[in-house]
Amino acid sequence: MFTVCVRDHVMIAHSFRGEVFGPAQRLHGATYVVDAEFRRRQLDADGVVVDIGAAHALLKDVLGDLNFRNLDEEEAFAGRNTTTEFLAYAIWTRLADHVRSGALGAGGDGLCGLKVTLHESHVAWASFEADLPR
């Protein structure tokens, strides 16, 4: 499997419901370093997985919809605890939707998998990965 990974970051505010979250039940901020790893079984005719510039621009665009937002106020997340794990899935879903709709051009056609990792710090992170549906 061949992979290309691009990285950006996002700054959000949110709070959690449930005693398990302790003080994080109160509104707090988080800055995540976000990695998006695109996978392909065979390199394309140009010898690449995907155009790195296009992949980075797509990640930046997807994160732009979340950046500097209080996720507690976002309709898309109503009633959800926006944990690191949940956000990895939410970002994966948004990226996958864009890939399927052709946002990466012909270079996105051969992609077979995607992994999104959110780094909370240098010692903690969470990921979601899955095959890209055809």
Account of the protein in words:
- This protein has a five-stranded mixed β-sheet.
- The chain is built from two helices and five strands.
- A hairpin with a 5-residue loop joins strand 4 and strand 5 (about 125-130).
- Helix content is about 20%, strand content about 30%.
- The model has no long low-confidence stretch (mean pLDDT about 95).
- With about 130 residues, the chain is an alpha+beta fold.
- The two termini are about 15 Å apart.
Features:
134 residues, alpha+beta, 5-stranded mixed beta sheet, 2 helices, 22% helix, elongated
What's the total number of strands?
A: 5
What integer is the average pLDDT?
96
Number of helices: 2
Determine the strand fraction and express it as a percent band: 25-35%
Overall geometry: elongated
Query: Numbering strands along the chain, what is their spatial order in the largest sheet?
Result: 3-1-2-4-5
